[in-house]
Amino acid sequence: MPTDAKKKNLDDWDFSWPVMNVLIGGRSSIDLPEISILGHKEAYEFIKSYGYDPQRTHDARLMHSVICESWAFIERWLMPKEWKMGLNPPEEVLMCQDPCQLLVWACDRAPEFTKRRMWSCAILRVMHTIAHIEGAFRYSNLEVARDEIIGRIQTLVTHDESGNTWIKNGRYSVKLHKLDWKVQKSRESVLLKLLHKRANVAETIYDMLGLRIVTEHQSDVMQIVKILYRSHVISFPNVIPSRSRNSLLDPDVFRTTLDQYRGEYLTNKLTHEQFLALAKNMVIPAKHDDESNLHSGIEYQAIQLTCRQLIRTPRPLTIIRKNLQAQIGELTAKDPAARGLVELVNVLKNISQISGDDELSFFPYEIQVTDKKSWETNSTGKASHRRYKNSQLKTARLRVLSEILAGSASAKNPNKASGK
């Protein structure tokens, strides 16, 4: 039997690779072969991390409507003939109104419950897609979104007596070299970003809020990503797979190398100290074959996640109702104005029962994680931010001013313009 210390070390360096493939490998959570959720309580925390609270009446109604729409979509569009022929879900899955229960069933790999698991997975995939269609980028209060997202991540940040900064969750902890927030993107920067790509529109500005985390060691980057999703600070189904960037390390080689060390450690071929030293000091170069962003040099090394957080912002009627309630408290019960305000507040409450007190919308933000050595490389040379911006500027300039620039060049060289 492994010792307690060995169990801890092995667990520290144990990763859920399907989830990591979503976070840093560009894979969609819809395509995950399985997830691991142990019990109803963990399922509830998972859904809260996603953005909904099943214990809130309005959220429960929203999720129930998404479940109903998902089943209708599957029946009508994905398998109309098969459904009519009797290929449909078990009654308990079809009638389930509890998303936590669906998550638990989706993770139950007992052979006798295979059918229930498969249908639970199917409905969750459609639900996830519908939820994002409903909430995509309808944020109305940037400050509310920024405060909530920053607050969630700050729960993991601590400082020791020596002034060092750490990311901690329970017994998992990683010492940081640097942590920077970008809390507002300038108007000029937004314009430049929209202009340098023809496909870009306002909704595709994902980095209005950003966080850069710099670790001491490359392997610590993987620990940071692990802590972020295990602590439910980020929700891995809400990561945008097409915008995941990993130019720091090769996860396949990292996994193979780490599995080798773990095997040798488990069979006592490595001591505690040797195992931790090998794991901590791994340096696995990335494959540089991603040309999706032509303005970033191949020297740029980081893991970049584009996340989404479901944000609650009070509806205008909710704000008005609360203001009226505050005014009622300042009036006497016999005051005619108080009675009128009470009636108005009751009307607004009735409206809220239909529409809900809050507007729910997804807010995108970026998290960039890299190590100290890579960060120093990124800050200088061909990978620097200045060069990146200059490349963007050149493309935008040619796009907007191509005819003007061509005319200016002709005026300076009339012989060339006339073909002489």
Describe the structure.
The structure is a single chain. By secondary structure, the chain is an alpha+beta fold. It folds into 3 domains: 34-135, no CATH class; 142-308 and 371-394, no CATH class; 316-355, no CATH class. Helix content is 53%, strand content 13%. The chain is built from 18 helices and 7 strands. The chain has a 7-stranded mixed beta sheet. The radius of gyration is 26 Å and the shape is globular.
Strand percentage: 5-15%
Q: Total helix count?
A: 18
Rg estimate, integer Å: 26 Å
Strand order of the largest sheet: 1-2-3-4-7-6-5
Structural class: alpha+beta
- Percent of residues in helical segments? 40-55%
Task: List the helices and strands in order.
Answer: HHHHHHHHHEEEHEHEHHEHHEHHH
What overall form do the CA principal axes indicate? globular
Count of strand segments = 7
Short description:
The chain is of the alpha+beta class.
Task: List the main descriptive attributes of the protein structure presented here.
single chain; 420 residues; alpha+beta; seven-stranded mixed sheet; 18 helices; 53% helix
List the helices and strands and how they pair.
Elements: H1 4-12, H2 17-24, H3 39-50, H4 57-78, H5 80-84, H6 91-94, H7 99-106, H8 114-135, H9 142-154, E1 157-159, E2 165-169, E3 172-182, H10 187-195, E4 210-215, H11 218-230, E5 245-246, H12 251-266, H13 272-280, E6 303-314, H14 316-329, H15 336-355, E7 358-371, H16 372-378, H17 385-412, H18 414-418
Parallel strand pairs: 4-7
Antiparallel strand pairs: 1-2, 2-3, 3-4, 5-6, 6-7
